[in-house]
């Protein structure tokens, strides 16, 4: 029995690290975007398009890292479109996000058809568990470099927002567009740049999906991770470091079903599939009316108004 | 003084001077049509860049969606759920809510109607009694499901856009859980499904057509909801709350109840679409219920400017695009995602066109402007 529990826990730890990486990257992108006062619901589209572009690039060039870069650029272009449209008067940023979710997914499926069959070179993992003789520990501690990219990015973003001139400008634009304008800051340009950079991160998150875990391109690759990451940002109260913990929590809940299946408990497999969504919803209910969240939310954000 | 009034009159004289209502109506027709035309051009450019012939594409849409009575009935068949899911987005939108959960309510509504049917079929109940019970079950389950999003929004401050999408994923998981598990029909080997309803329990086609009754139901409900939103106190209160929440609260309107009721109506519409998918199309509940009708309905409602009556023709348009999809795949050797790209382009163009309201150069803006 204790063996089974150990296996489930190890599988969940490994799963949490694996599953959390795309959550983390998308959530960091969304944090940056929302800090500037705009919400981009369309990052699910970036994730799927990024996954397809990364896989296609890795397949045609043989270099998975080139795929990661291409995925980021594709995500950036998509989000730049979002940022550009949102600066037009009378345009609702939530609706534009939904439209870009559709467009990104549609483009990915359209151009991705020829890449469903072939096998592309994947990203290698770093074996951090080599010290242990236990195969489960080794398996759990095989960590993809993109996870560390995410961690580094979280720290960098946190430091940048807190301590730098750029961070101050982004936060000011997000809290009060009027004061930013009074300081001579171009609100639209700051938001366009923040949204584009956020889209770049989300695209990289997609590259992780197709190049590492699950590790191939298919149309059912993403199941709303991009969307859940947006909810996760609210839970993490727009703090990049808290995004890391929130993403790990989400990853663990996503890994619950497969982990239980690995010890032969497959009864409620489809039900455990719903765990991350239910967890997200519960977390949203708990964090929506909290005083802290209200205090830390960027003032210009349409979603918290 | 006289000089300035003369110059300010000059441009106004060249513009159409209309009462605000007609000006708004013209805007609401001209701008979406222009957006459709623009997206057709952008999509043509996209096709040309890929070396495909755009004229052939639109000709095939005509052939596959409109030209023959077979293809037109296919269009009508696909338009039926789109009318209902379009309404499911349009009604809460009037109260200012962006509710994306129609897909989930459709799936659960279809599942509920298939499940309540099982004991009735086995007990040999009369069909005329059973079908209404199935429809009511579908509407109730869909209504409650979307009502949750409305309730969370109003009483817990949870963003309804994200919560309704999460509820959709949960709905699909519940359906898979039940269909793959307890309620799986042992006979369904390829695709896990609930017990087939049998030919007697299928809702038939409308007389003289091969289009099921869901279309008639959709049109009737569209008219009813138009009356509800435009001609009743409920609709008036909902529109006030959608325009200015604080003002509605200050007037003593029960905003929370309005929000939950709007979402429940939306869920009931989508649930009913699920009922028709089960009784008229699939004959059982399975994963085919999640056929993106709920998501296309969002676009339908946006293009219809959230007007329940306009939802009907727009649903026909997207029904025709869906109906011609297979033909285009075969004849032009293009992936099935072609229609997703076209829909995405239409959606983005449509939202860009929102910026034109109150700014059309040939309409007098002073009068139309305050009605955006």
Automatic annotation (TrEMBL), chain A:
Its main location: membrane. GO terms for molecular function: transmembrane transporter activity. CDD domains: TM_PBP1_transp_TpRbsC_like. The chain crosses the membrane at residues 6-29, 41-59, 65-85, 94-112, 143-161, 192-214, 220-236, 243-263, 269-288. Signal peptide: none annotated. InterPro entries: ABC_transp_permease. Keywords: Cell membrane, Membrane, Transmembrane, Transmembrane helix. It is a multi-pass membrane protein. One of its GO terms (cellular component) is plasma membrane. It is found in: Cell membrane. This is Nucleoside ABC transporter membrane protein. It comes from Celeribacter neptunius.
Automatic annotation (TrEMBL), chain B:
It comes from the Bacteria. This is Nucleoside ABC transporter membrane protein. It comes from Celeribacter neptunius. CDD domains: TM_PBP1_transp_TpRbsC_like (cd06580). InterPro entries: ABC_transp_permease (IPR001851). GO terms for molecular function: transmembrane transporter activity. Keywords: Cell membrane, Membrane, Transmembrane, Transmembrane helix. It is a multi-pass membrane protein. GO terms for cellular component: plasma membrane. Its main location: membrane. The keyword Glycosyltransferase does not apply. The chain crosses the membrane at residues 30-50, 57-73, 79-97, 104-125, 131-152, 164-183, 211-229, 250-273, 309-328, 340-357. The keyword Transmembrane helix applies. It is found in: Cell membrane. PANTHER family: ABC TRANSPORTER, PERMEASE PROTEIN, GUANOSINE ABC TRANSPORTER PERMEASE PROTEIN NUPP.
């Amino acid at each position: 029995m204790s063996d089974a529990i150990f296996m489930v826990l190890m599988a969940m730890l490994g799963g949490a690290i694996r599953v959390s990486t795309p959550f983390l990257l998308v959530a960091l992108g969304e944090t940056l975007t929302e800090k500037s006062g705009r919400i981009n619901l369309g990052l699910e589209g970036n994730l799927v398009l990024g996954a397809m572009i990364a896989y296609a690039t890795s397949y045609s060039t043989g270099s998975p890292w080139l795929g990661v870069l291409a995925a980021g650029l594709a995500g950036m272009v998509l989000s730049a479109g979002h940022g550009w449209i949102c600066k037009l008067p009378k345009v609702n940023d939530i609706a534009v996000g939904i439209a870009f979710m559709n467009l990104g997914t549609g483009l990915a499926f359209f151009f991705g058809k020829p890449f469903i069959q072939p096998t592309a070179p994947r990203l290698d993992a770093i074996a951090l568990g080599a010290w242990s003789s236990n195969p489960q520990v080794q398996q759990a501690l095989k960590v993809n470099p993109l996870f560390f990219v995410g961690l580094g990015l979280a720290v960098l973003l946190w430091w940048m927002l807190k301590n730098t001139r750029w961070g101050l400008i982004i936060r000011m634009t997000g809290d009060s567009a009027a004061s930013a304008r009074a300081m001579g800051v171009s609100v639209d340009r700051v938001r366009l740049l923040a949204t584009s950079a956020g889209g770049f991160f989300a695209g990289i998150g997609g590259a992780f999906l197709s190049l590492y875990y699950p590790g191939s391109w298919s149309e059912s690759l993403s199941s709303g991770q991009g969307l859940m990451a947006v909810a996760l940002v609210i839970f993490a109260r727009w703090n990049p470091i808290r995004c890391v913990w929130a993403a790990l929590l989400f990853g663990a809940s996503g890994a619950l079903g497969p982990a239980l299946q690995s010890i032969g408990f497959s009864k409620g497999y489809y039900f455990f599939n719903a765990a991350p969504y239910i967890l997200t919803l519960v977390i949203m209910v708990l964090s929506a009316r909290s005083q802290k969240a209200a205090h830390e939310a960027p003032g210009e954000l349409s979603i918290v108004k | 003084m006289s000089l300035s009034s003369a110059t300010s009159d000059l441009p106004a004289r060249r513009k159409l001077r209309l009462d605000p209502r007609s000006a708004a109506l013209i805007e609401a027709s001209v701008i979406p049509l222009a957006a459709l035309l623009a997206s057709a051009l952008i999509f043509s450019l996209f096709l040309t860049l890929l070396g495909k012939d755009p004229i052939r594409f639109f000709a095939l849409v005509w052939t596959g969606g409109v030209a023959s009575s077979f293809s037109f009935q296919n269009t009508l068949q696909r338009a039926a759920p789109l009318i209902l899911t379009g309404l499911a987005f349009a009604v809460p939108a009037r109260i200012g809510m962006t509710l994306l959960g129609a897909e989930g309510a459709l799936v659960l509504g279809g599942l509920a109607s298939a499940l309540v049917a099982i004991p009735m079929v086995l007990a040999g109940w009369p069909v005329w009694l059973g079908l209404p019970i199935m429809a009511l079950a579908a509407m109730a389950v869909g209504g409650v499901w979307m009502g949750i999003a409305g309730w969370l929004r109003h009483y817990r401050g949870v963003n309804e856009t994200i919560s309704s999408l999460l509820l959709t994923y949960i709905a699909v998981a519940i359906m898979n859980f039940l269909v793959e598990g307890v309620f799986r029909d042992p006979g369904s080997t390829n695709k896990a499904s609930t017990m087939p309803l049998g030919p007697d329990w299928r809702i038939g086609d409308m007389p003289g057509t091969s289009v099921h009754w869901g279309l008639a139901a959709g049109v009737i409900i569209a008219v009813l909801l138009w009356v509800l939103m435009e001609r009743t106190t409920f609709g008036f209160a909902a529109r006030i709350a959608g325009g200015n929440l604080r003002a509605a609260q200050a007037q003593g309107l029960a905003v929370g109840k309005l929000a939950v009721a709007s979402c429940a109506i939306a869920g009931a519409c989508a649930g009913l679409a699920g009922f028709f998918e089960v009784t008229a199309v699939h004959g059982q509940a399975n994963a085919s219920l999640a056929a993106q009708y709920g998501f296309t309905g969002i676009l339908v409602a946006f293009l219809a400017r959230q007007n329940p009556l306009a939802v009907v023709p727009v649903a026909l348009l997207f029904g025709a695009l869906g109906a011609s999809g297979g033909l285009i795949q075969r004849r032009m050797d293009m992936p099935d995602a072609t229609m997703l790209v076209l829909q995405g382009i239409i959606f983005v163009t449509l939202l860009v066109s929102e910026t034109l309201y109150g700014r059309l150069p040939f309409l007098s803006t002073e009068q139309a402007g305050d009605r955006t």
